[in-house]
Amino acid sequence: MSNDYWYRLLFKVKLYEVAGEAFQHLVNSVLGATFPRFQSIAPWGSAGDGGNDGWIEEERRYFQVYGPKASSSWQPVKAAKKATEDFAKLKVNWSDVRHYTFVLNDRFVGIPAPVVEALKALVTAKQVVRADAMGAAEQTDLFMALPEDRKMEIAGGFPSDTLTDPEPAALNEVLQYLADKDIPIPSTAVPVAPDFEEKIAFNQLPKTIATRLRKNSYHISDVDAFFKGRDTWIAENIAEVLRGIYNECVMTIPAENGDAPALRYVLLLEKMVPEIAKSHPHSLKAYRQAAEMVVAKYFEACDVYEEP
């Protein structure tokens, strides 16, 4: 899996998950890395941010950010109304507005027509020279154009292809065990069971993800080593936790998205890694690699993804 492919999936997963202030923070990170003169605006006093979540002063370009919750059925008409109302506040509180960008977390369904029409109306009425909307697709394009160090800063690191390297306590325990263990690359490939391949095809997993599952299946014996000498509850508990996490991934990322199988895989890994491991890039990388090994084992056992 190429670096760019992995970064793209990580960023798309973030967009599916974040809302409200978390979405605004993510947008500010991307805009700040993309436009050197971009300044984010924090709410202040009774006027708040005056309809301005961030701007490029020299260009008189203002950004307003709207990130509805993923679980809510947000209304396009409501989004259009917010775009118009925030612009009105902008005109009152900030001078010489030339370019207005409404940043919406549409989660890749596309900017709804009411929002487009509302922004066109502002230009037609000559209230602003330019008004446009920035959806998840354009945000992803901006992110992918960033240097790798900035992408890593925003999305975090990713597991290497070499594989060398409930608050689920049992899941955290196996991840820590694998993350701390020096696991060598297998000297010979372990044959992949036919039903493993059948399950890959049935779940429509793309080639890149399927390859990672096969590689990590060579390490199932390393995962099994963790369970030796431990009671059977641990394995059963982890299976139950993973089923719950995977179901959350299915609910978060709809099947209609063309990248759904790959995005669910990445989101599953992200949800498995404990928060404490995300504070350091090296720990995050090791835990993500460990998570992939655990997923491979439970994929084979049909505890995650759909069984043919």
Order of helices and strands: HHEEEHEHEHHHHHHHHH
Count of helical regions: 13
Quaternary structure type: single chain
How many structurally independent domains?
2
Structural class: alpha/beta
Second CATH tier, the architecture of the largest domain: 3-Layer(aba) Sandwich
The helix fraction, in percent, is 55-70%
The CATH class designation of the largest domain is Alpha Beta
Report, as a whole number of angstroms, the end-to-end distance.
26 Å
Shape: elongated
Q: What does the radius of gyration come to?
A: 22 Å
Strand content: 5-15%
Mean pLDDT: 87
Going across the biggest sheet, name each strand in turn. 1-2-3-4-5
Using the coordinates shown, work out and report the CATH topology of the largest domain.
Trna Endonuclease, Chain: A, domain 1
Largest sheet: 5 strands, mixed
Please report the total strand number as a whole number: 5
- Low-pLDDT stretches: 162-167
